[in-house]
Amino acid sequence: MIDFSYTVLILLIPLFMFLLIGLTSGKMKPALSGYIGTLAMSVVTLLSYYTAYQYFFNRPAGTEIFEKIVPFHTVWVHFTDTLYVDLGVLLDPISVMMLVVITTVSLMVHIYSIGYMHGEKGYSRFYAFLSLFSFSMLGLVVATNIFQMYMFWELVGVSSYLLISFYYEKPTAVSAGKKAFIVTRFADLGFLIGILILSYISGTFNFVELTDPQGALITQGTSLTFMGISALTWALTLIFMGGAGKSAMFPLHIWLPDAMEGPTPVSALIHAATMVVAGVYLVARLFPIYYFVVPDALTIVAYVGGFTSLFAAVIACTQTDIKRVLAFSTMSQIGYMMLALGVSGYGGEHGLGYMASMFHLFTHAMFKALLFLGAGAIIHAVHTNDMNHMGGLRKYLPITHITFLIATLTISGMPPFSAYFSKDEILVAAFEHDKFLFFIEYAVSGITAFYMFRLYFNVFWGKSTHYHHTPHESPLTMTVPLMILAVASMFTGFIPFNDLVTSNGAAFELHTDWSVAIPSVAIGLVGIAVAWIFYKKQSAIPDKLAVTFKYPYKWSFNKFYIDEVYLFVTKKIIFNRISAPVAWFDRHVVDASMNGISWVTNAISDQIKGLQSGQLQKYGFVFVSGVLILTFAFVYFLFN
Amino acid sequence: MNLESFLLMRHEVMLTIALLIILIAELSTEKKNSIINLSIILMFITTIVGFFPVPEGTLFGGMYQTNHMTVLMKNILNIGTLILFLQVAEWIKQPQYGNKVSEFYLLILSTLIGMNFMISSGHFLMFYIGLELATIPIAALAAYDRAKSISAEAGIKLILSSALSSGILLYGLSMMYGTIGSLYFTEMAGAFMSTPLQTLGFVFFFAGMGFKISLVPFHLWTADVYEGAPINVASYLSVISKGAAVFILAILLYTVFYSIAPMWKNLLYVMAVMTMTVGNLFALRQKNMKRFLAFSSIAQAGFILLGMIDGTSMGMASMIYFVLIYIFTNLGAFGVVSAISVATGKENMDDYNGLYKTNPSLSLLMMLSLFSLAGIPPVAGFFGKFFLFTSAANSGYYWLVFIAVINATISLYYYLLVVKAMFINNNDHPIAYFKSGFTTRIALLMCMIGIFVIGLYSPIYEFIRMFSTGM
Questions:
Q1: CA atoms within 13 A of residue B412's CA, in its CB half-sphere
Q2: Do A616 and B263 touch (CB under 8 A)?
Q3: What's A277's DSSP letter?
Q4: Interface contact flag, A627 B278, Cβ < 8 Å
Q5: Which residue among A8, A235, A336, B363 is least enclosed by CB atoms within 10 Å?
Q6: What is the pLDDT of residues B136-185, one digit of tens each?
Q7: Residue A493 gets which letter from DSSP?
Q8: SS3 at position A397
């Protein structure tokens, strides 16, 4: 056995950095906090790479499958012999893969922010929060049990909230932070209930026991039902609700576009590459239970994912804020991952969807981080988010242009870039399982290519806009991460995921299904071509189309009015019809009785103050009377 | 006597040696600082030596007994005293205390020796000597502030009240001796039959212990003494002295009086309810920080009884754990009050208005200590209360736990009053910024670390559980 106990450092270093930078932020030079934060993150990244190397390529001879390893764990709270909460580190293919993803993107964002956040107020606060986030996210993925995962899940939510409302003097940023926190918190309520039901049935929090295909939970299931549906289906659907909240699945997606109010590096780290895929990771973590025990819940996962990917792609076509286009594209891509899990089987080739989902998660993290960081570089240069005020930037920002183009080609599924491979596997998995979902995803890849190239042409080509200041390329600290991520986007597609990250840990043979691959590239090319015609040069076609299809355009532009539906439900129905009476009851009945109790308490306190007179003889009298009363009371009770 | 017996009673021996060294040093030096530093170093060494593992055993024909649990208790008391020594350094340097600072340390160490003998006693005479050794010097300490009449009043009140309580306790012991014919714990264990005379003896004995722990209605001396005594003496009384009395009472109830468990459980039930409630009701209306902390410590004693009433090893563990947390927490709160009192002479709650603006780190520590006293997660006090309540609920005392929860809510109100004063109330002239001395800061830092680590680092609780024994 290889000793992996050093992996606990991967958690401890970011935690220590958070405390160090957070506690000394007033005294340390801001620039220094950026440098030491980045330095610590590079150490963590190297440790993760080393872990991945050891785990994947240095396994003991003769083992066929990747085992789940728990190199470190400790009982944290011991309630009873059956109810206890552990803290620990669990290594298996997906957690090791996530370590690589998180630390890579986090390191890139750390480096990038040295340039991007330069001179901002609260620079060291930013780095403290980045460390907190990295700690929470890493703790989430290596959790040995579902309760630990839940704790880190909430920590991730908190740090996301802190980072979205980083510019706390800006009202929109504050309300975006609150919105993200409240929506995901609401979803987490489902998660928590799901955890409680699941652990009530199974008697354990431990992932290894829960997801063992030969374990008690999976082989026996439960006879408990609620409203005609198995309690486990309830549990797993509620747990998926938590995942859907974090991963911005319809209809809990409304916080993600607003979250773009945070600094752009934050969007790249949290709202593109790491936190938003936590929901996918959660489903993947519990996948054996979903597959063997509650296939109904898995169907829900597939359809929610499929619908969200289409829904978000349609909205992305009409948005003009470049970060929001990317936010909707993130939703759409996560929809792909969810769908892939939803259509997957277990073991060997049946687990194609599972492997494809993790594969796409990996490649998506690289190219989406690149897109966001590129968008950050653009915003840094022209000081606006609105693509209508951009154009012709390829001359001014050559490095950003090339890397952004690579990322756009990648997300459009063009070979030989990474997403071509991962998306292709998803399509194959969908094709084999559910033709309807397959055709939806097929259409979505065309739409994706269209809206991404719409963005690309609008920003880098099109009309040449007049700028107040001539835009200039970003400093090296910002362009180097772009280049590294561009290389990653180009080549990570060649990683043999079928040998490494599979549903049961065993490798399987992968075949390229040309009948799926060729049409998917073709529809991508169609999308690009349409975007080329519409947006490469200034053209009247898009506006004409917008007028012709007035209502579809308006609906898409206004994000199908989902925000308005939420506002209507919360303000008009919940606040007016439910909250107002409850508030009245609270104020006039609950508060009043509490005030009454406190009044009584104070009154009694006032009445007995004479006892504490300061006179020693009285004290002695009370003492002796107390003794005598107690004695008589006990003697009386004992002999009656 | 051989070497092994020295090892068995190493706590008492080390403390006695420390006491003698300070006594000799006093003769040879005039410098305050050397005495102060010497005391801290000696206490530090004593604390470390206390942790060396040695076997269990009895000495002096069963008069003295020691086991892992009593060693653990003594170590906890040593740690508390060490923190206290660090805290007092700055206070005792003030000119009004003259050059003879060694008195303070000698008296504290004598009481600590008394407590250690009390915890390790195997015979009621040994126990009684320990009890007196642990009480009488404190009366002298309470009157340490010679220039102030209120301090003299505190001293005289303490000595008179404790004379009364000792008399009653001794009376109770004599009745026990009269009915059983022995004062050895091993011979008395199980011999109680709850006849009227023995009941009388037991209640008398219990009242004496209730006086030390300040249980209602034997608590009346507490507030006056705490207010009048120098703040660090009050802190010692509320933490170390009370902790030691709680430990010995639990040991006696579990080992000597176990045959009348139903009776003392009822007694503890009544005491716990009265102590929590009365302590809280009085704490509500205090304006002086020392009196405030006095009543808060009375209420806390009521909570401690919840662990004692259980009678199992888990109850014992939760009680020791709570006392450990309580030592760090209360020393933190008293430490802040003491630091402010030394720097500015102010001791009223109104003086704390707006403290956060000028002294943020002190306010933060005070807030954490008060949160811990109130039992708000994630600080240690929450876990302490949680385990106490769990152990009481395990033995089916649901109503008692319910009353305790209500009392915890009331206590939250007055603890938050202080937090509100520091953080929210406006004040045109808040206490100006001041920097505490090095030792004070070390002591406060230790308290702060304790408040966090003891709660979150679970092996500490497991360690205590390992050594705790029940009935």
A1: 12
A2: no
A3: G
A4: no
A5: A8
A6: 999 999 998 888 888 889 999 999 999 999 999 999 999 999 998 888 98
A7: G
A8: coil
In the block, tokens 């170390």 appear at B240
Largest CA distance in chain B: 68
Is A553 exposed, middle or buried (CB count within 10 Å of its CB: 0-12, 13-18, 19+)?
Answer: middle
What's the mean pLDDT when you consider all of chain B? 89
Interface ipTM > 0.90: no
Cβ-Cβ contacts under 8 Å, B206 against chain A = 630
- Residues from chain B that touch A74, judged by Cβ atoms under 8 A, are 458
Q: Using CA atoms, how far apart are residues B40 and B20, in angstroms rounded to an integer?
A: 14
Cis ω for the linkage preceding B55 (within 30 of 0): no
User: Are A614 and B224 a contacting pair at CB < 8 A?
Assistant: yes
Q: How far apart are CA B186 and CA A14, in angstroms?
A: 56
Q: Does B196 touch chain A (CB under 8 A)?
A: yes
Average pLDDT by consecutive 10-residue portion of chain A (640 residues)?
81 89 79 87 91 83 76 78 82 89 91 84 86 91 90 90 87 87 89 88 82 76 72 86 87 84 86 86 89 86 90 86 88 89 82 87 90 88 80 81 88 84 85 84 87 85 71 81 87 81 77 79 83 74 73 74 78 80 85 82 78 82 89 77
| Secondary structure (3-state) at A31 | helix
Q: Show residues of chain B in contact with A606, CB under 8 Å.
A: 285
Q: Which residue of B has its CA nearest to A616?
A: B157
DSSP A330-350: HHHHHHHHHHHHHT--SSGGG
E-state strands within A219-328 = 225-226, 229-230
User: What is the C-alpha separation between A247 and A280, in angstroms, rounded?
Assistant: 7
Helices A8-24 and A123-141 cross at an angle (nearest 10°) of 160
Token readout for A166 is 């980083």
CA angle B58, B64, B67 (to 5 degrees): 55
Phi first, then psi, for residue B2 (nearest 5°) are -130, -175
Nearest to A205 by CA among A352, A75, A336: A75
Pairwise CA distance, residues B42 & A266, whole Å: 54
**Does B198 reach chain A within 8 Å, measured CB to CB?**
no
Any CB–CB contact under 8 A between B13 and chain A? no
- Cα(B321)–Cα(A78) distance, integer angstroms: 14
A-chain residue closest to B413, CA distance: A598
Interface contact flag, B164 A620, Cβ < 8 Å: yes
> Count of residues for chain B?
471
- Please judge whether B161 and A75 are an interchain contact, meaning their C-beta atoms are less than 8 angstroms apart: no
CA distance B311 to chain A (A): 18
Rg of chain B's alpha carbons, rounded to an integer? 21
Which residue out of B153, B159, B192, B199 would a mutagenesis test of the A interface target, given it has the greatest number of A Cβ atoms within 10 Å? B199
Cα(A35)–Cα(B348) distance, integer angstroms: 46
The shortest CB-CB distance from B218 to any of A608, A618, A626 is to A626
Q: Which residues of A436-465 are buried (b: 16+ CB within 10 A; e: fewer)?
A: ebbebbbbbbbbbbbbbbbbbbbbbbbeee
Cβ of residue B278 closer than 8 Å to a chain A Cβ: yes
> Which of A77, A602, A623 faces B284 most closely, judged by CB atoms?
A602
Q: Hey, are the CB atoms on A623 and B207 less than 8 Å from each other?
A: yes
Q: State residue B327 phi and psi, 5-degree precision.
A: -60, -50
Give which of B220, B269, B277 to mutate to test A binding, by max A Cβ within 10 Å. Answer: B220
> Chain B: residue nearest A622 by CA?
B217
Nearest CA in chain B to A612: B220
Residue B401 one-letter amino acid: V
B263 touching chain A per CB within 8 A = yes
Distances (CA, A) of B247 to B118, B209, B438: 10, 11, 32
Going through B142-262 in order, the beta strands assigned E by DSSP cover none
- Chain B: give the shortest CA distance to residue A612, in Å: 7
C-alpha angle A143-A340-A186 in degrees, rounded to nearest 5: 55
